[in-house]
Amino acid sequence: MERRFYALRLLYDGGRFRGFQHQPGLPTVQAALEAALAAAGVRTPLAVAARTDAGVHAVGQVVSFGARVDREPDALRRALNASLPEGIVVLDVHRVAAGFHARASARSRRYVYLVGAPVPEALAGYAWSLPDARAFPALAPGAIPDLLRLREALSHAVGTHDFSGFARPGEQRGSVRTVTRADVVVATWAPLLAIVLEGKGFLRAMVRNLVGTAVGAALGIADPGIVRELILARARYRGVRAPGWGLTLAEVTYPDGALPGPAR
Questions:
Q1: Which residues are paired to 64 by β-bridges?
Q2: pTM above 0.70?
């Protein structure tokens, strides 16, 4: 039988897993997905759009693979969801072209980071709650992020830069990335902010380090220009890393026709 190629779009609660990628003896999204695929008769290597860290959530993760099996996409989706553990849902399955690759074919990735002052109870485990004495021990009680300072700090990340100063040391050789959007959306129903970062690709820990630095600037701990200074310095990052549970991989986009959009 000829190889056929598939792409899955996933949602998962990162708090239940130690990240996407395999880690011996620890629960990961990859291990759970491979076990569910094996139960459906599919054993094959997987490509993933973004290797999310421990605690990081996803509502639009994409995984692709090729295998010598012929499965009707919706039947495969149902079979996988019947086998997957609580906390992971396959939203849709599509047949794709032989050249499609979840990571290499991606045009952009959009992340959303939630910050609350404090976080509404319904979003506990999905947003960073301020004040945070561990991250900002010198912060005065009741301090809240200043929106203008937050937006100014994030604006320095937009464009093509060497982001080695915001990367996890030793993870990747190429450190030049392009950020196309760095925005803040304010909730009207709660003291909640959504920091939106979008680009073709991000270094490991880059989003969380950018958020930690920008939030520090918004709280008055540093000048908003600190983001630009750290980009130019290209030194090892020693600032605050925002916790993983506030971060969600919201969407991965592809060139027109490569992968149908999510079901609405």
A1: 7, 47
A2: yes
In a domain, 260, yes or no: no
Model pLDDT for residues 103-113, shown as the tens digit of each residue: 999 999 999 99
DSSP H/E element including 141: none
Catalytic residue among 13, 53, 70, 162: 53
Nearest-5° Cα angle at 64, 181 to 204? 45
254: Cβ contacts below 8 Å, ≥ 6 apart: 62, 100, 105, 106, 107
Active site residue 146: no
Residue 262 lies in a domain: no
Q: What is the DSSP string of 188-238?
A: SSSSEEEEEEEES---TTHHHHHHHHHHHHHTTSS-TTHHHHHHHH-PPP-
- How many residues does this entry show for the chain? 264
115/167 same-domain check: yes
Residues 15 and 145 in one domain: no
Do 205 and 241 form a contact (C-beta atoms < 8 A)? yes
Distance of alpha carbon 70 from alpha carbon 42, whole angstroms: 10
pLDDT, tens digit, for every residue of 80-90? 999 999 999 99
